[in-house]
Amino acid sequence: MKGEIVKKFVVASVLSLLGIIIITSTMLTYSTNLTSEISEYCLENLSLTGAINVVCAILLDFRAYDTLGEVLIIFVTISGVVLLAGRKK
Amino acid sequence: MTSRIIKTITRVLFPFILMFGIYIIIYGHLSPGGGFQGGVILAMAIMLVVVVYGHNRFQKFVPYLLFIEIVGVILFILIGISGIASGRQFLVNLGTIPLLNIIIGLKVFSGLILMYLFLSRWELKND
User: Which residue, B127, A73, A76, B106, is CA-closest to A84?
Assistant: First the structure.
């Protein structure tokens, strides 16, 4: 009985500590100024890309290497699924 | 399991979902959307039909979908190399954003359907 109470106390303290860490880090993140020169650069040079949609311009022009990586990730995933689950009996 | 209501509604809704996905892909550089989102919508349309009408009649499309998947990767890298061929860096923008959107959309479309078909067949086999 006593051990159970100690266990509950330990779990509650760990969870509350985790909550405090998450809340503090979130507040710190939102209090700092995140607008850097990169975002201003992307907005200023948007007309060079030929796209109106800023997200699309960043995905396929400024950060095209990231998109290449995502394409390769999907390809590798399909390869794994076909290799593991596509065996014919 | 699937009633007549679900079958009828699927048959009516299917072309509109396809049209919406294609719109999202083609207008990706002008309005919110893009290749990934439109590809997922297209794949969802096919998945709806697979869930309602069974996956047996779709197994014959698997080689074509694999072909689209592989050709998509190769085309993406070739468009990147075309930037080098024009005398600038790899994957430089030569007005190719709509083309890349279409390629990514086809790739995501075929990839999601392939994953779903293979995993559902595997599940059925292991029952």
Answer: A76
